[in-house]
Design goal:
alpha/beta, seven-stranded mixed sheet, about 350 residues, globular, three-stranded antiparallel sheet, binds pyridoxal-5'-phosphate
Length: about 350
């Protein structure tokens, strides 16, 4: 029996995708081997990677003047790759701090020797808010402005793309492919794959081509977007299974109707859960309307002493991984693309039943 897995990542994947992968695991495209066993330089895999890239370009509407690169090392690898590819030590960059992933990006950028000006910080609200459109811009002379469109831990999400005088760099790890996106507004988009794009360990990087060719000479080749793009992300053995699964997931997104349909589906899921939270005195949502993530719904029980019981009973009911991040406690339901509306409805039903018994 499949559970509804509310994990923040690695996250639930579409069952159709897992079934297809299982069905062709031992004999992929008539090779008599799994996709993990074929040569990454052989015709079949080169095609598979090219198709994954093409599908991503089509689904996200990525313009031709953007390169797509598949990097290993997850999103965290990109926290370093961004400053290495776009700055020299001592250069100025800007950052929007909306929570824990912003703070990590900040720390890693400083490690890479750039100066980071935090141009807006939502600290006062305890990182439960998003700055208003037009209320901030990159500091003068910044190489780029970095922001985190969806804070996976705090559960806040931008519902707009900031206007910005410097190239906009975005960590879209937990929201990519969840709704339509105007890629042309960005200088660089990067995202770890384990939320909406497959298994952990890989990052997809989408970079405007005029930003290539600027990497520091000491940048490791495997984090150098220019070298990676020149080599079609095959500078070394790429994560073949991850790239293959990304392709299957993109097929699934297209079958469901692409990002417009995905956005509608995700909006309905999120509204279902937030509407229920707002109607209850037993539960509450710390993030206010206007900043609420469609992907990571944080909520609290009025009686915190019931937290452990809630998680245990939910798990017994087949609703797993609902405990909030260890740093914040409470609950978090991550409802990425692969979570069906039925899963959210099952959670709401469980929650009202739990309230009836313990309220
Ligand atoms: C999950 C996540 C990361 C970290 O990804 P890794 O692949 O573990 O490095 C970074 N940023 C955001 C917003 C995330 O949700």
């Amino acid at each position: 029996m499949r559970v509804y897995n509310f994990s923040s990542g690695p996250a639930m994947m579409p069952v159709e995708v897992l079934e297809q992968a299982a069905a062709e695991l031992t004999d992929w495209r008539g090779s008599g081997m799994s996709v993990m066993e074929v040569s990454h330089r052989g015709h079949d895999f080169v095609e598979c990677e090219r198709e994954a890239e093409e599908k991503l370009r089509r689904v996200l509407g990525i313009p031709d003047d953007y390169a797509i690169v598949f990097c290993q090392g997850g999103a965290t690898g990109q926290f370093h790759a961004v400053p290495m590819n776009l700055t020299r030590p001592g250069d100025l960059t800007s950052l929007v701090n909306t929570g824990q992933w912003s703070a990590k990006a900040l720390r890693h950028a400083e490690q890479a020797g750039v100066r980071v000006e935090v141009v807006v910080d939502e600290k006062e609200s305890g990182y439960t808010t998003i700055p208003a459109p037009g209320s901030f811009d990159a500091a003068r002379g910044s190489a780029y402005l970095h922001y985190t469109p969806n804070e996976t831990i705090g559960g806040v999400e931008f519902d707009y793309v900031p206007e910005c005088g410097a190239p906009l760099v975005a960590d879209l790890s937990s929201t990519i492919l969840s709704r339509p996106l105007d890629v042309s507004r960005f200088g660089v988009i990067y995202a770890g794959t384990q939320k909406n794009m497959g298994p952990a360990g890989m990052a997809v990087v989408i970079v405007r081509r005029d930003l290539l060719g600027r990497a520091r000479p000491e940048t490791p080749d495997i984090l150098d977007w220019t070298r990676m793009a020149e080599q079609d992300s095959m500078l070394n053995t790429p994560p073949t299974f991850s790239i293959y699964l990304l392709g299957l997931i993109l097929d699934w997104v297209e079958r469901l109707g692409g990002l417009t349909a995905m956005g509608e589906r995700n909006r309905t899921k999120a509204e279902t859960l937030y509407t229920y939270l707002d109607s209850s005195d037993f539960y509450s949502a710390p993030v206010g309307p206007g900043a609420r993530s469609w992907m990571n719904v944080v909520f609290l029980l009025a009686d915190r002493s019931l937290d452990k019981t809630f998680v245990a009973e939910a798990t017994d009911a087949g609703l797993t991984n609902l405990a909030g991040h260890r740093s914040v406690g409470g609950m978090r339901a991550s409802i990425y693309n692969a979570m069906p509306l039925d899963g959210v409805q099952a959670l709401v039903d469980f929650m009202s039943e739990f309230e009836r018994r313990h309220g």
